[in-house]
Amino acid sequence: MKSWFYKIGLSLLCLLGCGWTWAERTPQDPFLVEYNPEALQVLPGKSFTFTLRIKIPSGFYLYEEKTSLLFDKTADLLLLKSERPPATLHVDPFLKKEAPVYFNDFEQKVSFMVPQETAPGLYVLEATLRYQGCSADLCYRPMRRTLSLPVQVAAPGETIQAPPSETGAQWKALPPSHAREAKPSFWSLLHESNPELLLDQGKVVLLGLALFGGILTSFTPCVLPIVPLTLAFIGVKPSRRGNWRRVLLLVLGMVVMYSLLGFLAALLGLKLGFLFQSRWFLLLTALFFLIFALGLFGVIPFQLPSSWQSRLAKTGGAGALGAFLAGLTTGLIAAPCVGPLIAPLLLIAARAQDKIYGFLLLLNYGLGMGLLFLLVGTGFMELTIRLRGGIWPQVLKKSLGVLLLVPALFYGSLFAKPLLSETQDAFWEFDLEKGLSQAARSRKPMVLDFYADWCPPCHELDKLTFSAPAVRRLAEQFVMVKVDCTTDNAQCRSATARYQVVGWPTVLFFNSRGEPIPDLKLVGGFTGPERMLTLMKAALSRNQE
Hints:
Blueprint: H1 2-23, E1 32-35, E2 40-42, E3 47-55, E4 61-63, E5 68-73, E6 78-83, E7 88-92, E8 97-102, E9 106-113, E10 121-131, E11 133-134, E12 143-153, E13 172-173, H2 186-190, H3 195-200, H4 203-217, H5 226-234, H6 240-268, H7 279-296, H8 306-316, H9 320-338, H10 343-352, H11 355-386, H12 392-416, H13 432-442, E14 446-451, H14 456-465, H15 469-475, E15 479-484, H16 490-499, E16 506-510, E17 516-523, H17 529-543
Parallel strand pairs: 2-12, 14-15
Antiparallel strand pairs: 1-3, 1-13, 3-9, 4-8, 4-11, 5-10, 6-9, 7-8, 10-12, 14-16, 16-17
Helix pairs in contact: 1-11, 4-11, 5-9, 5-11, 5-12, 6-9, 6-10, 6-11, 7-12, 10-11, 15-17
């Protein structure tokens, strides 16, 4: 047993250590972006054109739909138009469908007008370029580069220099996305739900965020009911060494389960989440908690047949294999509860299409989440050893049974009640195709909210964000659509596959043509009214493009 136990532990530690070293060898950005950083001289009332060159190596290509140049600051200059050459349709092996792509170098030209009343002086345009590309065997993460373009507005009548020709211009390569001057803080990344921004930070940072995120997740009200389940399994053993082994193996089982979820997310893409929204899975989860609670009350005995006990004893003395299997089961049972919280991690694993990294990402998350169970299990172990006499063992046992009834009732109510009445509101359209048609007819942008009845952040969005007066007023300029993913259904399957949604809540923004607006999305967690208003205003603005 000892050799088996140590082999598992050392293997996981090796994988973790190797993963941090391997993550440093992430592929660099193979695409080259150039522009002319020299200040342009322009007279008031005149226009000028800015050119950005994107160079694509042989054997690579860029997605047209994921390539965008957005000006964050125009310095009161008027943006006239932004154009680039048409893309080529290509059957993409990663998207499994036909998509417009660029195989060769191309230029994006952006024209501005200097208003007649503009005062002379130096103005700076700030822009962000986003793109994603692939080679034949590797799809790169979304890239982002920032640039500043100085524009010198001359006084009326002043002689200015003619802009240099493209052949004579001093072209400069933009630094890669990981060399941005301003990086988000560690705490802001913990609240970040945009997978593109998280991917920008590099794989080592993401592994650290996954570990710390697992620690924070273990203290959420949704996860805490799993703790008494762990304590109930640990029980009371006469040996501290035996109890410690059971605790460690149970936590190890949970860690392995989350690691497998990450591996499967990368292997299966975005299809993994459907298991946890199945109505029958919710029923099995409720029965799991109920059976354990009844067992602690003495209604259902947990005594295994003698032949089973002897086999388990041979594997590890005090049911070590059983402890490990119980940890696997506990991790699976907790998956619907923490699903909305690990949605960005699963999305990153799926988009990376790297099975090893997906495994390591969720391994770190499981380690972080398992720390609480390890500490609580150790404390409970000492408490039960000290209170072995008298009525205290029975008091602890019955108390754990009462705590286990709470998640049993919660998941049982979700199985019996398909949708809370509070979400049935004329404010929302619940048919996606009708919503797309309404947006096209009214030329309004659309908000698409993926939610599940068992998802606590989804209820918070309804009660605190979408119900806020300012949000509801602005929503009159939108078509508001909800997709119910409480249970597995045809509309949910179709919409999640269509828009690559992995967890709930997910809020997407569309223009009136039914096209998702790049970089405007919310994935997992609660978002307040202020952030929602900012995104909705941005969607309104970009719907005019």
